[in-house]
C-alpha cells in the first residue's frame, strides 16, 4: 500500500476557480485528498466529486473556489474503471480491506463460466450495494453500522453497466484473478460486481484492485498526482486546473451569451430560449462560465449563476 506523506506546499496566492483532475493514490481517503489540495491551492474552498475508497486509485475531480458549484453536475456522470476480481474468497467489505468470510477452491472454474457470469451483469440491472458503503440507513452510513457489528441489508438499486471487458484471467493456486475494464453509470459498485460474480460461480469473490480511469469527459490522461501538484505549487507554476468555462463544456452542452444577456444573467434573470434540450452552460463571448440553464415554460431559466452582479 502506498502511503502519502503530508504536504507543506501552499500557493503564494489562491488558485483561480476551476476543476483539477487528481490521480488519487492508494491509502488515502477522498477527504484526505481534499485536505491536501486545500494546502496546495491556498484556499479552504475545495471539494471533490465522486468518492473513491482508500484502496482505490485514479480519477478524482477536485473543484476549487466557486467551481465547487459544478460538482453537482459531476456526480451523475458515467464512469470507467479497471479492476481485479479474486475468485475463491469472499470478504465482509467485498474488497481486500475486509476480513475473509468464506473460502473455496476456484481452480476448476472455467474461463467461459467467468465470461458468461460477467456478461450476465451488463445492461440495466438491479444491483445491491456493498454492505460497507456510504448508503444511508435510518440516517446512518451502512459502513458505520457494519463496523459497529450490526447486520446490514440494503435494497437493490437500478444501475446500467455498459460493458465489462475481460482483459486477463490468471490462476494462482486455488484462486482465480480476473482483470476487467468496466464502463458503468453513476451509483454502480464495482465491489458488488466482484461479490456477485463469486456468488454466481459458487466460490465467493472480492475486489483486490480498483482504478478509476474516467468520469464523464475527464480521463486519467489529464490527471496529475498530488506530488506533482505540490511541486507545481511550490514552484509557483500553474496547477493545470480547467477554467470554469472549459470545465463546464466537458460536463454539458454550451451556449454563448451576448453582452446584454450576460448582464441579465448576472442579476439572475431569465433569457429567451434557443431550443436546447436539457441542462446546458451559458458562456460569455470570452469563454467565461456565466450560468447553468434549463429551458422550460418558454423561458431559459438559470439553475445556477456563477457571474453574479457585484
From TrEMBL:
Matching CDD domains, A to Z? PseudoU_synth_EcTruB (cd02573)
Which residue ranges does the record assign to the tRNA pseudouridine synthase II TruB subfamily 2 C-terminal domain?
Answer: 252-306
Q: Does the keyword ATP-binding apply?
A: no
Q: Which residues form the active site?
A: 53 (nucleophile)
Annotated ranges, domain Pseudouridine synthase II N-terminal: 38-190
GO biological process per UniProt: mRNA pseudouridine synthesis; tRNA pseudouridine synthesis
What superkingdom does the record give? Bacteria
Protein keywords = Isomerase, tRNA processing
Residue stretches making up the tRNA pseudouridylate synthase B C-terminal domain: 191-231
InterPro entries referenced in this protein's UniProt entry, alphabetically: PsdUridine_synth_cat_dom_sf (IPR020103), PsdUridine_synth_N (IPR002501), PUA-like_sf (IPR015947), PUA_sf (IPR036974), tRNA_psdUridine_synth_fam2_C (IPR015225), tRNA_psdUridine_synth_TruB (IPR014780), TruB_C (IPR032819)
Q: Pfam families, per this entry?
A: TruB_C, TruB_C_2, TruB_N
A Gene Ontology molecular function term of the record: RNA binding
Q: What is the E.C. number?
A: 5.4.99.25
The reaction(s) annotated as catalysed by this protein in its Swiss-Prot or TrEMBL entry are:
uridine(55) in tRNA = pseudouridine(55) in tRNA
Q: Which HAMAP family match?
A: TruB_bact (MF_01080)
Q: What does this protein do?
A: Responsible for synthesis of pseudouridine from uracil-55 in the psi GC loop of transfer RNAs.
Similarity comment = Belongs to the pseudouridine synthase TruB family. Type 1 subfamily.
Specify the protein name.
tRNA pseudouridine synthase B
Gene from which the chain derives: truB
